């Protein structure tokens, strides 16, 4: 009896095996058409008749594809869609690769029943994913930590017209000699590596704050050393930290809408291409995304949303073809997420490929950033002090043990693991070539405006010479010390001479680094130089290019003064993002052309010289996860340009009035932000600042509003205000520039030609200044106030009316030929003839933007 049962079991297993072998796993592909119009039908449900759980939905072109086990030589497909009759179609297995299904329109009349087109099935999935995205992100946890390996690879992809240059020939020769297949381009030519950076970090997060600790790094690059800013930025590799759970991703200098952001319906069109997809063990919806408008800066590609949580499981996205972005040939982002600590979804691995080869005759650049995360933990308490007042500064922690780094290297890297060591050697070999060394020196001068030296850098070369109508020919010479001179001390002296005023000018900045990890610095500045009054409070915001430009031309109209100054300061940090500062300053302002009033008004003091002593306290809030200490011992926050920066200052001072010293107080506050996202409308730069000066003071100690009478646009100036036109002892300034980033111009038929021919973009500009002067200030400076509009032999100013702000506005067209910007500006208030200002103006500027 037992034998019979055993025999029966064996026979059953045998026939089951035969049946299983008789089932073939096949790929079923085809298209569904309307039987009358022969047009493809999207969103049709196509399944196996006897196993309706196996199937898919047709895409926007009516196509479908899925895998299934089919018994025998035939399969029966069932296609159904509202408004059409369900259709069965038997097909041979041999013909499953090109199935055509015709659906007939349902002609049955239904009384008082209205059929509406069904919603795109992808919309329902994305709507749920967008709603749940923040709840599924780990930022919702009280705290978490993980470990992260990052790798950055930077290559010159195509030397183009420079391939005949000796510097290019030598670099290509080194790469070709080693025959590294991982460095080949699509056309068989070689990429030339110029920088490879690897790092291992600990990442910490608590609600509202982050910290990152660089454990090890390994950097090899041409013209860089492991401790300079470029190397540290590449080692940190924070550019690859896109958060798709937010509404927008900051890519290069653009805000790109996320496919699961709140504006997905405005920006993207989506299609369900596979409702039975799997990523690992997670059943997913596979959805294709495309931008709705051609030219929009948006993504195209595929995303995978889990069926259980509606979480983003995987993405494979590219910058959409035709996106209004300069120089960029392609952007490719691939990412996988994993469910981890706290049931949240974390980035497991991520890769960003950036191809910047749309550069005309200039060499193209290829950048790959790769991240691998693990060890997600939301239960272990944060290490003691990780969020205290000490903050992380990106420093070199060079560790060149190749065996250690090889454990992290992945096949997704441009460089294969076996080639990685050779590439570091390639870079070392290239940078030792004489032509490369010379080219590197020139490149650094262009980029930094300084000539690199061992202990000092010479420059700035931008300030070596200038001509203006006060100094005549101005010659300047200076240098700054390097870290090889001292890790703690920084000196920056300069000396200048003008051939017309025959006066020497000088400056010396000295900074001592007390505690690098806590950002404690002390320093002093001593200088004698010539500056316009408005520019004395503008130094902190101006660039080295703007400072050099203001030395040229007719500077007399800016009411310049010789500025003798001594300043001592102390700065520190607490709670990572807060920066208090304390300073003491002595200043003497001497008029270039002393004023002599007529005898009838001799009782009015000519303020040819103003001496003041003041103490100031300041507080600055900059939200940033990491800071870089630059060569001038100044902390540069990473990623802070997209977030608001708050400032608060208070000063108490005294100025000399004859033999007496009179007190005054000054208070100011401000907020500014670049690239503030406005969903689908682009991004905004804005600045809001207000202040008040209390006391009976000369106008030189008040707020001199920065005007701009030149044809060039300067971001920090009031564009349609004249130089030295308005002075205030209480004021509020608001500046705003809104960049549509191509999102408006591509939708307006009349303007789309600009986009087609010039890749142009539209922006809006506006300045508003509220202000005025107290009765005390008016009386004290009455002889300097311009009340009649007539010219005198000295500079006079006006004050703003309390109920009438100064306003200008305009429309700009930027990115003309990927470089030029033209602003059409209009002055809207203070148009009376006595003000003598221009009502209209065209402002020009050139800006490199992606």
Protein topology:
Blueprint (H helix, E strand, L loop, with lengths): L1 H21 E12 L10 E4 L2 E7 L5 E9 L2 E7 L6 E6 L6 E5 L17 H16 L6 E16 L7 H13 L13 E15 L2 E13 L7 H8 L11 E4 L2 E4 L6 H4 E12 L2 E10 L7 E8 L5 E8 L10 E10 L5 E12 L7 E14 L24 H5 L10 H15 L2 H15 L1 E2 L4 E4 L5 E4 L3 E10 L7 E10 L5 E12 L4 E13 H4 L7 H6 L10 E12 L6 E14 L17 E14 L4 E3 L5 E3 L7 E13 L2 E18 L5 E12 L8 E2 L22 E2 L1 E10 L12 H7 L2 E12 L2 H6 L25 E11 L3 E8 L12 E7 L4
Parallel strand pairs: 1-7
Antiparallel strand pairs: 1-4, 2-3, 2-5, 5-6, 8-9, 8-19, 9-10, 11-12, 13-14, 14-15, 15-16, 16-17, 17-18, 18-19, 20-21, 21-23, 22-23, 23-24, 24-25, 25-26, 26-27, 27-28, 28-29, 29-32, 30-31, 32-33, 33-34, 34-37, 35-36, 37-38, 38-39, 39-40, 40-41
Helix pairs in contact: 3-7
Pfam families: CarbopepD_reg_2, DUF5686
Protein name: Collagen-binding protein
Keywords: Collagen, Signal
Describe the structure.
The protein has 850 residues and is mainly beta. Among the domains are: 21-107, Sandwich (Immunoglobulin-like); 449-544 and 558-673, no CATH class; 680-850, no CATH class. It is 14% helix and 44% strand. The strands form 7 sheets. The protein has an 18-stranded antiparallel sheet that branches. The N and C termini lie far apart (83 Å). Residues 1-22, 108-117, 389-394, 410-419 and 599-603 have low confidence and may be disordered.
């Amino acid at each position: 009896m037992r034998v019979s049962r055993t025999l029966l079991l064996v026979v059953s297993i045998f026939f089951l095996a035969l049946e299983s072998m008789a089932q073939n796993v096949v790929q079923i592909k085809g298209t569904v058409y309307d039987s009358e119009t022969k047009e493809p039908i999207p969103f049709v449900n196509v399944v196996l008749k006897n196993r309706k759980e196996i199937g898919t939905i047709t895409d926007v072109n009516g196509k479908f594809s899925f895998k299934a086990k089919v018994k025998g030589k035939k399969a029966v497909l069932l296609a159904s869609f509202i408004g059409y009759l369900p259709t069965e179609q038997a097909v041979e297995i041999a013909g499953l690769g090109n199935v055509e299904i015709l659906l007939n329109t349902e002609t049955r009349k239904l009384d008082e029943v209205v059929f509406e087109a069904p919603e795109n099935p992808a919309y329902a999935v994305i709507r749920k994913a967008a709603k749940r995205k923040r709840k599924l992100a780990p930022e919702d946890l009280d705290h978490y930590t993980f470990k992260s390996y990052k790798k950055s690879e930077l290559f010159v992809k195509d030397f183009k017209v420079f391939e005949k240059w000796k510097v290019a020939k030598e670099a290509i020769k080194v790469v070709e000699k080693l025959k590294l297949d991982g460095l080949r381009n699509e056309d068989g030519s070689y990429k030339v590596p110029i920088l490879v950076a690897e790092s291992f970090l600990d990442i910490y997060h608590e609600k509202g704050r982050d910290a990152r600790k660089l454990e090890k790094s390994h950097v090899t690059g041409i013209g860089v050393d492991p401790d300079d800013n470029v190397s540290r930025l590449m080692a940190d590799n924070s550019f690859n930290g896109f958060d798709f759970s937010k509404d927008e991703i900051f890519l290069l200098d653009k805000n790109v809408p996320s496919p699961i952001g709140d504006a997905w319906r405005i920006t993207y069109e989506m299609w369900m291409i596979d409702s039975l997809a799997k990523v690992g063990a997670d059943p997913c919806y596979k959805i294709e995304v495309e931008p709705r408008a051609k030219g929009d800066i948006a993504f195209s590609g595929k995303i995978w949303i889990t069926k259980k949580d509606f979480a983003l499981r995987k993405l494979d996205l590219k910058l959409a073809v035709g996106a209004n972005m300069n120089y960029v040939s392609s952007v490719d982002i691939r990412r996988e997420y994993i469910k981890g600590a706290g049931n949240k979804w974390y980035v497991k691995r991520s890769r960003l490929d950036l191809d910047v080869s749309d550069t005309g005759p200039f060499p193209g650049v290829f950048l790959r950033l790769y991240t691998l995360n693990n060890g997600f933990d939301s239960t272990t308490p944060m290490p003691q002090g990780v969020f205290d007042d000490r903050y992380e500064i990106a420093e070199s922690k060079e560790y060149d043990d190749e065996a250690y780094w090889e454990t992290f290297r992945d096949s997704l890297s441009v460089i294969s693991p076996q080639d990685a060591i050779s590439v570091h050697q390639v870079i070392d070999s290239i940078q030792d070539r004489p032509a490369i060394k010379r080219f590197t020196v020139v490149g650094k001068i262009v980029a930094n405006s300084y000539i690199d030296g061992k202990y000092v850098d010479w420059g700035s070369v931008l300030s070596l010479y200038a001509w203006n109508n006060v100094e005549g020919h101005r010659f300047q010479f200076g240098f700054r010390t390097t870290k090889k001179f001292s890790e703690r001390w920084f000196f920056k002296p300069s000396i200048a001479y003008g051939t017309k005023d025959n006066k020497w000018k000088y400056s010396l900045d000295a900074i001592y680094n007390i505690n690098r990890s806590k950002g404690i610095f002390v320093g002093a500045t001593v200088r004698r130089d010539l500056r316009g009054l408005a520019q004395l409070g503008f130094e902190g915001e101006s660039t080295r290019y703007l400072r050099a430009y203001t030395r040229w031309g007719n500077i007399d109209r800016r009411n310049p003064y010789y500025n003798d100054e001594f300043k001592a300061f102390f700065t520190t940090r607490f709670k990572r993002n807060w920066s208090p500062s304390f300073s003491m300053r002595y200043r003497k302002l001497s008029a270039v052309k002393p004023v002599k009033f007529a005898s009838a008004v001799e009782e009015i003091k000519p303020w040819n010289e103003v001496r003041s002593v003041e103490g100031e306290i300041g507080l600055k809030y900059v939200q940033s996860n990491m800071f870089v200490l630059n060569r001038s011992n100044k902390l540069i926050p990473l990623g802070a340009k997209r977030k608001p920066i708050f400032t608060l200052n208070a000063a108490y001072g005294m100025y000399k009035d004859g033999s007496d010293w009179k007190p005054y107080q000054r208070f100011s506050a401000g907020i500014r932000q670049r690239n503030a996202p406005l969903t689908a409308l682009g991004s905004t730069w804005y600045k809001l600042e207000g202040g008040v000066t209390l006391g009976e003071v000369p106008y030189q100690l008040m707020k001199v509003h920065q005007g701009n009478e030149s044809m060039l646009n300067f971001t920090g100036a009031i564009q349609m205000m004249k130089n030295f036109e308005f002075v205030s002892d209480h004021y509020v300034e608001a500046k705003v520039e809104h960049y549509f980033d191509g999102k408006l111009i591509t939708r307006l038929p009349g303007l789309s030609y600009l986009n087609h021919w010039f890749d142009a973009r539209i922006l809006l500009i506006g300045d508003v200044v509220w202000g005025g002067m107290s009765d005390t200030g008016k009386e004290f400076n009455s002889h300097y106030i311009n009340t009649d509009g007539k010219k005198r032999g000295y500079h006079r100013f006006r004050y703003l009316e309390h109920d009438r702000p100064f306003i200008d506005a305009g429309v700009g067209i930027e990115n003309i030929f990927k470089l030029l910007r033209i602003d059409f500006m209009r002055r809207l208030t203070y148009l009376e003839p006595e003000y003598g200002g221009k009502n209209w103006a065209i402002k020009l500027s050139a800006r490199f933007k992606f």
